[in-house]
Write a structure and sequence with these properties.
This protein is mainly α. Helix content is 55%, strand content 4%. The protein folds into two domains: 36-132, DNA polymerase, domain 1; 148-328, Orthogonal Bundle (hpI Integrase, Chain A). Belongs to the 'phage' integrase family.
Length: 339
């Protein structure tokens, strides 16, 4: 503790500096934190489109529950309650696993929200309640490659039933050939087609854009859709129904529901489009190796998981085209010519 003489010297020093004790103790108060309803639109407008699409349902739930609550009024107990709420209110789908994915996405959506609050200086990092919450465990996926017999049945049902079997057959073939995620198929536009090199441009998870080889047969079918289903310009989606209206994710859901009505295994396992991705990438890995499978999937190399060697063993587009040609039996213009 300072002595009387030391305090007197300090006061004298402050007087000579022209600083009062009131000025010394004053701190600029932090602006009032926004409410959840006020801040969610700010974050939604700042994140990439893929992140927005994933987290928006959980932000909507958050606004519904705590829209009028300031973000600095929510504590770790509240966060845990909301994660449980997201789990119990998750939409039950054929591929549902007890709401585990919903809980994980709810946690990540909140983490994203509070990171932006800190970056925008409306919340002190020490007051972030998500730092005190344990991340929900990731449940191992039950998806696996589909065997040839079942796959043949799926293709047959898709191409012979429903109100637009021609479109559904193209959807199945598109995802089998490219191993694209559902969003990748929905986002294809006429300007994304390169008929000369038989490539399509995919926009997928993490806003990653890549050119993917497709068979000349599939390219012909995609061009036919473009020419016959009312495309107004190069930026309109290619996958359209007979009335010329762009399809949505609901078309995919209905497609697998219909296939499940004809094939018990599809209904029981909850098979979806993503299973086609597993099927194709498994085949490519078994026949052409890990590097080609990674390139085929559009995955970036990760030295943290598999070592720095992967930096030097990346596969090129010609190798992906070669794997595709072997998969489809349809020669590809970019595939290496046999010696």
């Amino acid at each position: 503790m300072a002595t009387t003489d030391e305090l007197a010297m300090a006061r004298l020093f402050l007087e000579r500096m022209g600083i009062s004790l009131e000025e010394l103790s004053y701190t600029d108060p932090r602006p009032t934190a926004p409410t959840i309803a006020e801040f969610v639109p700010t974050v939604s407008g700042a994140v990439p489109a893929g992140t927005r699409r994933t987290y928006t349902p959980y932000w909507h739930k958050l606004v519904h529950v705590w829209g009028a609550v300031r973000i600095d009024e929510i504590n770790a107990t509240d966060i845990n309650w909301f994660i449980g709420h997201a789990r119990t209110t998750a939409v039950v789908r054929r591929s549902s696993r007890g709401g585990h994915s919903a809980a994980l996405h709810a946690y990540r959506a909140l983490r994203c929200l509070y990171r932006y609050a800190i970056w925008n200086r409306v919340l002190d990092p020490r007051d972030d309640p998500t730092e005190l919450v344990t991340k929900p465990k990731t449940v191992r996926s039950t998806r696996h490659a589909i065997d040839n017999g079942l796959l043949s049945d799926i293709v047959d049902v898709a191409s012979t039933t429903g109100n637009d079997p021609a479109l559904d057959a193209i959807i199945i073939r598109l995802h089998l050939e490219t191993a694209a995620r559902r969003a990748g198929g929905l986002g294809i536009r006429p300007r994304d087609l390169d008929p000369q090199r038989s490539l399509i441009r995919l926009r997928e998870k993490g806003d990653i854009t890549r050119w993917q080889p497709v068979s000349p047969t599939l390219m012909t079918n995609l061009l036919h859709l473009t020419q016959t289903r009312g495309h107004r310009d190069d930026d309109t989606p290619i996958l359209r129904n007979r009335k010329g209206k762009p399809i949505t994710a609901r078309r995919y859901d209905h497609l697998w529901e219909r296939i499940g009505e004809h094939i018990d295994t599809v209904r029981t396992l909850g098979i979806t489009t993503h299973w086609l991705r597993h099927t194709t990438l498994t085949w490519v890995e078994r026949n052409f190796g890990y590097a080609v499978a990674r390139a085929y999937a559009g995955h970036a190399a990760s030295s943290t998981r598999t070592g720095v060697t992967t930096t030097y063993v990346r596969a090129g587009i010609s190798e992906v085209a070669e794997a595709l040609a072997a998969l489809t039996g349809d020669p590809h213009p970019l595939a290496p010519k046999p010696l």
